[in-house]
UniProtKB/TrEMBL annotation:
Domain Globin as annotated: residue spans: 1-138
UniProt-listed Enzyme Commission number(s): 1.14.12.17
Family membership noted in the UniProt record: Belongs to the globin family. Two-domain flavohemoproteins subfamily.
Broad class of enzyme this protein falls into: oxidoreductase
UniProt-recorded name of the protein: Flavohemoprotein
Length: 403
């Protein structure tokens, strides 16, 4: 347990962390990677270049400082990060390395303001925070092992490659050793690790499992990261353009806390945008396969029909129950080809026309701006926060919108 004095010292550093946190984390990553270049096999180096990862860590450090006297308030975020760490195979031995270089970065950036008293308080605080992460992640690893999941990264082979839309391609993958695959919770993701020719280190990315579970194969669906004016995503472009049937890659066991409540009997609303449809498809197809009788409202927003993945799959799975509802919204003008296709965007008025069950369960996934808009709209309609579950492919720490 941290002393009252230690907690007060750490909390007193929050203002300067808010102002200079990213400067500290940029320094931290630079020093850590210089000392331990092997950790580049774990971290997404593209997010290092764009500044996304240093900003996310700076936010985490700030949240820790502000809540050091009530760390239990951070448990939902800790668990979300813990799933990511488990997927990337972060282990207890990594935490001392991070702590050492984080404290050095604080001392370097803050200079004389980083007094021995402050550094000692942060050393004690980091040890306690690391203990919480290690314990939660230990429980996750043990639970996965009991469920029959594998440890580390397992070799897989691509057995089918299917283009789903202009920007999304699915890969059907089987274990190279022919073993059966363990069940996963609909909504979860896997980490995909590959060694791309010309790259010194492994590259690892997370992709949602987009199909109902079966023991023979997993399906991951990958969006080609190619924003206008930006270089193509290194991994997504390699998978789209160079990975073929018979190709090899490695997967970690399924992880993630954006999970379908399979035992509930409440009406369920799936609201997705863009590639956010990938985990939603796994959830919706699982419900349909179980013939649970739960009423499904499936709403998906895309730029256009050519950008819309799984259109036929969604139509088929919702058609099994006359109480189910389906709506596709395209932001780029297109002629409506059926009663469930409209032009526009998901806004508050549209949500008001869709939502018929205040006690329903809402699963929301998509780009950050889409997430914020939809969740804000649902709250204005009186939907309780605990009924809204969400996943963004941005950093989880950018998604502080449910509070």
């Amino acid at each position: 347990m941290l002393s009252e004095k230690t907690m007060q010292i750490v909390k007193s550093t929050a203002p300067v962390l808010k102002e200079r946190g990213t400067e500290i984390t940029v320094c931290f990553y630079e020093r850590m990677f210089n000392a331990h270049p092997e950790l580049k096999n774990i971290f997404n180096m593209s997010r290092q270049k764009t500044g996304g990862q240093p900003k996310a860590l700076a936010f985490t450090v700030l949240q820790a400082a502000e809540n050091i006297d009530r760390l239990e308030a951070l448990l939902p975020v800790v668990e979300q990060i813990g799933h990511k760490h488990k997927s990337l195979q972060v282990k207890p031995e990594h935490y001392p390395i991070v702590g050492k270089h984080l404290l050095e970065a604080i001392e370097i950036v803050l200079g004389e303001a980083a007094t021995p008293e402050i550094l000692q308080a942060w050393a004690e605080a980091y040890e306690e925070i690391a203990r919480v992460f290690i314990e939660i992640e230990k429980q996750m690893y043990e639970k996965a092992k009991r469920a029959g999941s594998w440890e580390g990264f397992k070799p897989f082979v691509v057995v089918e490659k299917r283009r789903e839309s202009e920007t999304i391609t699915s890969f059907y993958v089987k274990p190279a050793d022919g073993s059966d695959l363990p069940p996963f919770t609909p909504g979860q993701y896997v980490s995909v690790r590959i060694k791309i020719p010309g790259e010194q280190y492994f590259l690892t990315r997370q992709y949602s499992l987009s199909d109902v579970w079966n023991k023979d194969y997993y399906r991951i669906s990958v969006k080609l990261e190619a924003e206008e004016g930006q270089p193509k995503g290194r991994v997504s472009s390699y998978l789209h353009e160079e990975m073929e049937v018979g190709g090899s890659l490695e997967l970690s066991a399924p992880a993630g806390d954006f999970a379908l409540s399979e035992e509930s009997d409440k009406p369920v609303y799936f609201i997705s945008g863009g590639s956010g449809i990938t985990p939603v498809m796994s959830m919706a197809k699982t419900l349909a396969a179980k013939d649970s009788g739960r009423r499904i409202t499936f709403v998906h927003a895309a730029k256009s029909e050519t950008h819309h993945a799984f259109k036929e799959e969604a139509e088929k799975l919702v058609s099994g129950n006359q109480d189910n509802r389906l709506l596709f919204i395209y932001s780029r003008g297109t002629e409506a080809v059926s009663e469930h296709v409209i032009n526009g965007r998901i806004d508050e008025d549209l949500l008001k026309s869709i939502v018929k069950d205040q006690d329903g369960e809402f699963y929301v996934c998509g780009p950050l701006s889409f997430m914020k808009s939809v969740i804000s709209g649902l709250k204005k309609l009186g939907i309780p926060t605990e009924n809204i579950r969400y996943e963004s492919f941005a950093s989880s720490l950018d998604m502080q919108i449910a509070n």
